Amino acid sequence: MKRVAILISGGGSNMVRLLDSMDGDHPARAVLVGSNDPAAGGLAKAAGRGIATFAIDHRAHASRAAFEAALLEPLLEVQPDIICLAGFMRILTPDFVRRFDGRMLNIHPSLLPKYPGLHTHARAIEAGDTQAGATVHEVTADLDAGPILGQARVPVLVGDTADTLAARVLVQEHRLYPAVLRRFAAGDRTPVIL
Ligand code: GAR
User: Fold this and answer.
1) Overall pTM surpassing 0.85 (yes/no)
2) Is 80's C-beta closer than 6 angstroms to any atom of ligand 1?
3) Domain 106-194, CATH 3.40.50.12780 — does that match?
């Protein structure tokens, strides 16, 4: 059984979908949920599902290196096989990423390689794209640029705002991330295309 740790920064709707998917014959189980924000709404949702949680407030650390050293401790304690970033909004240094080389996944709300970084939906609308979506990829030292493990597409509709498009994409994120994690945990890196 693969051991999965999940990092979040906010409401954690993707995290909840991942937790709920790891059941029955799934090759992985969640062992820990952590956040850089003690107020992240997702922490209570994980605790309510019986998962151990922790928060390391990035604002309480003087440097990115100090924050990451603190973040590393509870993660190393549970010896995760896989780390899922699920709405985790801190950029991780190459040093941190290297520790979990080939074992860390992220979900990003765009059809990468388009729109790495922030404001993905507004940028897709601004560019006149007719399709948008989400990508799950392996985390490497370069932001939002690791090997793609899955993508889900949605149409951009006339009159869409960043919010309406984000809501449509999020529905697909909830299908995509559990599907990719299941496949990845079974040792299969063939991209999931939804
Ligand atoms: C999701 O849309 C995820 O793709 C995005 O944050 C949201 C988190 O929602 N992630 C990023 O933008 C990463 N750069 P959730 O907390 O409800 O899962």
Assistant:
1) yes
2) no
3) no
